[in-house]
Amino acid sequence: MPNQTRLPDNEESSSKMSFFEHLEELRRHILYSVGALAVGAGVGLYYANRIYQWLAVPMLEALRKEKMAVQLVFTDPAGPVKLYITVGLYAGAVIALPFILWQLWQFVAPGLYKHERRVVVPFVFFSTVLFLAGAIFAFLVLLPYTLRFLVVIGQPFQPMISINAYYDLAIIILFGTGLIFELPIVIFFLSLIGVVTPGFLWRNFRYAVLVIALAAAAVTPTTDIFTMCLFMVPMMLLYLVSIGVSYFVVRRKRRAAPPRRAAEPAK
Q1: Contact 113, 256 (CB under 8 A)
Q2: Residue 6 C-alpha from the chain's centroid
Q3: 142 and 173 in contact (C-beta within 8 Å)?
Q4: 3 state SS of 162
Q5: pTM of the model
């Protein structure tokens, strides 16, 4: 019986794609993602006024608690228009996020094993959930504490807060925290391709704490240690969760790997 060699399950029967075919595939997925972003932006622009009123709540509450004028102003005649466009675009990005993540997975999936491709639904689901969880945490915890601190510091002065300046700050905090909450997904991919292992992550935990502290200090819009800790605590918890994710991925990879054949004795 002729010796048959089993091909790895990530190899296709068709010939391998050339460099330019990969570029064409990347171009196609980018165009699909841009189209989804345009559709999401259209929906976001339609509801921009409602989103604006919802995002204004933390700022207005901070002013109300300090018995200041509960009002936001604009100093540029085109300020409201710029605000609605900005809010609509960012809302469109959130709406299109699941589809964009799915397109990203479709691009990288051909280089993965069949059992690794099956996690496409969990990948899209958990990536979206983690981003939304980070944005919600920022909206309910980080943003109110940050604004309250800034308003208290500015008590000797009469506030005249521009709508554009406030929303720039709010969007940075919301989107920045949402991206930080994607850390387990990043570790999932790095573990999948063998760049990191749970042992490596655990051994370098102290260095991770240092990097997290520096990152928190960089993204914290205030100078108080309490707000910085509010950023650090979820980042450290996410790092610990990422170690568990890496352990799960590495364990699955070892189970799926074919057993090694014993070395044949030399003739």
Answers
A1: yes
A2: 38
A3: yes
A4: strand
A5: 0.77
Tokens for 164, please give them.
């554009």
Q: Give the C-alpha separation, 231 to 213, whole Å.
A: 9
- Give the amino acid at 216: A
Query: What's the CA gap between 8 and 135, in Å, rounded?
Result: 40
Read off the pLDDT of residues 192-220 as tens digits, 9 standing for 90 and up.
778 888 889 999 898 988 988 888 777 77
Alpha helices (runs of H) in 17-162, residue ranges in sequence order: 19-46, 48-55, 57-65, 79-108, 114-117, 120-137, 143-153
Token code pair at residue 157: 């002065």
Higher-pLDDT residue of 22, 68? 68
**What mean pLDDT value characterizes the chain?**
81
Q: Which residues contact 175 (CB under 8 A, 6 or more apart)?
A: 90, 135
Give me the amino acid identity at 3: N
Rounded to 5°, angle at Cα 175 from 171 and 179: 165
Relative orientation angle of helices 183-192 and 225-256, to the nearest 10 degrees = 30
For CA atoms 16, 197, 179, 121, give the dihedral sign: positive
- Checking if the pLDDT of 251 tops 60, the result is yes
Query: Distance between CA atoms of 195 and 97, rounded to whole angstroms?
Result: 26
Spatial distance between the Cα atoms of 140 and 109, rounded to a whole number of angstroms = 36
Span 166-195, pLDDT tens digits? 998 898 889 888 988 988 988 888 887 788
